[in-house]
Design goal:
The protein is of the alpha/beta class and about 170 residues long. About 25% of the residues lie in helices and about 20% in strands. The protein has a single domain (about 1-15, about 20-170), classed as Phosphoglycerate mutase-like (Rossmann fold). It has a six-stranded mixed beta sheet with strand order 3-2-4-1-5-6, sandwiched between helices.
């Protein structure tokens, strides 16, 4: 079995005068959420059991910071790719767009991790899960929330239904 872990970035500070949405950094609460994610990712009885992963991370400041603080240099991540195309502040990024980008980096030998933005991550879960987990029943995706889907270990990720096998929502 392989897995796909879908993570929304942690809480970010609001943009300040002249700052773009793309350049927003994490708040103190967001950094604390990352500490909790890192502990979960580093535990082989928790998220660590679903790695190693090939990661796809949006190049926006808050997603890069979420990845660095939560997953970088952990056994959970084997390799990482970044993409400015999955930042939805410049264009409408659909779940299918994100799925295409994931398929493009899918080695079919490791699990996958994506760190991106709402509403795209919520839409991706809605497309890939037959039944959404309860925390996603509304149209929102919790900040720093992580959901793990079980993938077939012989097929590239694609547009089909997968079972959600684990989730973590930091405080």
């Amino acid at each position: 079995m392989r897995y796909l872990t879908i993570v929304r970035h942690a809480e970010a500070l609001p943009a300040t005068g002249g700052q773009s949405d793309y350049d927003r950094h994490l708040s103190d609460r967001g950094r604390a959420q990352c500490d909790q994610l890192r502990a979960w990712a580093s535990d082989e009885q928790q998220l660590g059991q679903y790695g190693p992963t090939t990661a796809l991370v949006s190049t926006a400041a808050r997603t890069m910071e979420t990845f660095r603080r939560s997953f970088e240099d952990t056994p959970f991540v084997q390799s990482v790719e970044t993409s400015s195309l999955i930042y939805n502040g410049r264009r409408d990024v659909t779940a299918e767009d994100l799925l295409i980008d994931l398929a493009a980096i899918d080695p079919v030998t490791t699990s996958l991790l994506v760190v991106a933005h709402n509403p795209t991550v919520h839409e991706l879960m809605a497309v890939l899960c037959e039944t959404l987990p309860a925390p996603l029943a509304s149209d929102s995706y919790p900040l720093a929330g992580a959901f793990v889907l079980a993938l077939n270990d012989t097929e590239q990720i694609g547009l089909r239904h997968y079972e959600c096998v684990a989730s973590f929502i930091p405080d």
